[in-house]
Structures are given as C-alpha cells and as structure tokens.
Amino acid sequence: MRLFIIVALISITVYTAGFGVTLWKEKQKISALAVFFLTLAIIVLPFFSIL
C-alpha cells in the first residue's frame, strides 16, 4: 500500500510540474509560480503525516 501511495504522489507531482511548465510557456508567469508552489507543497507535506 505504501508503494502505491508513493507512486501516486510521484505521478501527481510530475503532472502538476508539467502543468506549471505549460503555463510558463504560455506567458502566464504568476499562475505558473502558483502551480510550482503547489508542487512544492505536494512534495513536502507527506513528510508531516503520521502514517
């Protein structure tokens, strides 16, 4: 189960980062920065869980 959670988080992180890159290329810099902060939150928050 833990492996499934890790794979799901990695795939969500990659997808979200890719969306941020797409926004950056479309000259929507502020939105891209918000998405990159969301990506950072997805990466960091699992370390604060009590699983």
Task: Note the main attributes of this structure.
elongated; mainly alpha; 2 helices
Instruction: Based on Cα principal axes, name the global outline.
Output: elongated
Helix fraction, binned, reads over 70%
Number of helices: 2
How many beta-strand runs?
A: 0
The secondary-structure class comes to mainly alpha
For the sheet with most strands, the description reads: none
Kindly report how far apart the N and C termini lie: 11 Å
Series of secondary-structure elements, N-terminal to C-terminal: HH
Strand content: under 5%
Using the CA coordinates, give the radius of gyration. Answer: 13 Å
Mean pLDDT across all amino acids? 89
Contiguous uncertain segments of 5+ residues = none
Task: Describe the structure in your own words.
Helices cover 78% and strands 0% of the residues. By secondary structure, it is mainly α. The relative contact order is 0.15. The mean pLDDT is 89.
Layout: helices, strands, pairs:
Layout: H1 2-25, H2 29-44
Helix pairs in contact: 1-2
